[in-house]
């Protein structure tokens, strides 16, 4: 048996593969739908952290990543899609009572967490059995939780796929980490990881300002969230002076990737109010803040295109002075992916 040791300074990865979630919330914000927001998985991570503390499991969760293998949004088919809603009792006049529309979807996802051991409860781990025991306990805890409002169903065994939770210490050198991640990411195929692409919003805003100098980031986000088809000239030298046009979106070139508008957090609309001062608040011991959604862009990318687990992890970031509470992705697009990922890695001796 391979001997493994983790200390408070080491970083490990916890993988919950192929979680089947039934009736998860498909409406991620007032303006987006189709997949739960990354904030839902961040909240699930914090809820899981509290349950780990209650179960005396000395692990601390820092970041979360999500890979989607299958999704089935509960909508009617057709040119205009509508959510499949529940049938509620009629009102006093016999008419259908008004309801708040709820969107639901079924998911098959893999969740990945960055994990460290709690220093105050640090123990020497010399056997893989300790990792397997912790992963099994965490899997049982998650099976009783909600993920994005959905119910976690039992995952049957799948030939050729790893379906049980597992943990592994991240190698202590960049090269070993790349080699280990190259083996791990094969388990998550077919599937797509959700990563952040804030750079797309900046580029679209810069391009939009060239035509409309008074454009805002919201204008750029709305512009990038839709298809902007127009006649585009096909440049072929053999055609000479003959011009041929076709309908296309010049801002979405071939090979540009599967990009989507997503909510990434919340912005405060007021200063923090004292705990218990707001009526009907669920938590009377925590200061209360009225917020609105913060939007950016994300991209669904195949795990085999990633080089480090740090590229698919999201972390929470809070700026109390600015009133900004948002999720940050470790992914960087372009040729500097490897270099930028190494900047996020821990310092190795």
Question: In words, what does this structure look like?
Answer:
This protein is α+β, with helices and mostly antiparallel strands. About 20% of the residues lie in helices and about 30% in strands. The protein has six helices and 13 strands. Strands 1, 2, 3, 4, 5, 6, 7, 10, 11, 12 and 13 form an eleven-stranded antiparallel sheet that branches. The radius of gyration is 23 Å and the shape is globular. Mean pLDDT is about 85; it is low at about 1-10 and about 335-349.
Q: What does this entry show, briefly?
A:
The chain is of the alpha+beta class and 349 residues long. The protein has helices at residues 38-54, 128-143, 174-184, 198-211, 217-224, 337-344, and strands spanning 12-25, 59-73, 104-117, 146-147, 150-153, 166-169, 192-196, 230-234, 244-248, 258-268, 291-301, 314-319, 324-329.
SSE inventory with pairings:
Layout: E1 12-25, H1 38-54, E2 59-73, E3 104-117, H2 128-143, E4 146-147, E5 150-153, E6 166-169, H3 174-184, E7 192-196, H4 198-211, H5 217-224, E8 230-234, E9 244-248, E10 258-268, E11 291-301, E12 314-319, E13 324-329, H6 337-344
Antiparallel strand pairs: 1-3, 1-5, 1-6, 2-3, 2-7, 4-5, 7-11, 8-9, 10-11, 10-13, 12-13
Helix pairs in contact: 4-5
Looking at this protein, list some descriptive labels.
disordered N terminus, alpha+beta, 13 strands, single chain, disordered C terminus, two-stranded antiparallel sheet, 349 residues
């Amino acid at each position: 048996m391979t001997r493994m040791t983790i200390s408070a300074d080491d970083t490990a990865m916890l993988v919950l593969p192929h979680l089947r979630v039934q009736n998860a919330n498909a409406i991620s914000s007032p303006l987006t739908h189709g997949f739960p927001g990354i904030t839902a998985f961040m909240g699930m991570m914090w809820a899981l952290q509290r349950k780990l503390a209650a179960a005396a499991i000395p692990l601390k969760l820092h970041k979360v990543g999500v890979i989607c293998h299958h999704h089935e949004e509960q909508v009617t088919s057709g040119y205009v899609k509508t959510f499949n809603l529940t049938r509620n009792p009629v009102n006093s006049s016999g008419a259908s009572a008004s309801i708040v529309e709820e969107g639901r979807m079924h998911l098959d996802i893999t969740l990945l967490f960055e994990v460290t051991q709690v220093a105050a409860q640090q123990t020497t781990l010399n056997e893989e059995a300790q990792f397997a025991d912790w992963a099994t306990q965490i899997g049982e805890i998650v099976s009783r939780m909600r993920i994005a409002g959905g119910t976690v169903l039992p995952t049957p065994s799948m030939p050729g796929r790893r379906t049980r939770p597992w943990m592994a210490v991240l190698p202590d050198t960049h090269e070993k980490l790349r080699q280990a991640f190259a083996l791990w990411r094969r388990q998550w195929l077919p599937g797509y990881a959700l990563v952040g692409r804030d750079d797309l919003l900046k580029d679209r805003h810069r391009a939009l300002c060239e035509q409309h100098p008074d454009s805002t980031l919201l204008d750029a986000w709305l512009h990038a969230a839709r298809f902007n088809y127009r006649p585009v000239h096909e440049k072929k030298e053999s055609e000479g002076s003959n011009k041929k046009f076709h309908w296309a979106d010049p801002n979405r070139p071939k090979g540009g990737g599967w990009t989507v508008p997503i909510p990434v957090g919340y912005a405060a609309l007021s200063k923090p109010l004292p705990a218990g001062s707001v009526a009907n608040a669920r938590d009377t011991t925590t200061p209360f803040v009225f917020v609105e959604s913060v939007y950016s862009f994300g991209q669904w990318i195949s795990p085999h295109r990633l080089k480090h687990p740090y590229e698919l992890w999201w972390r929470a970031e809070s700026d109390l002075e600015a009133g900004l509470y948002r999720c940050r992705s470790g992914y960087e697009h372009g040729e500097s992916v490897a270099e930028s990922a190494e900047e996020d890695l821990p310092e190795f001796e």
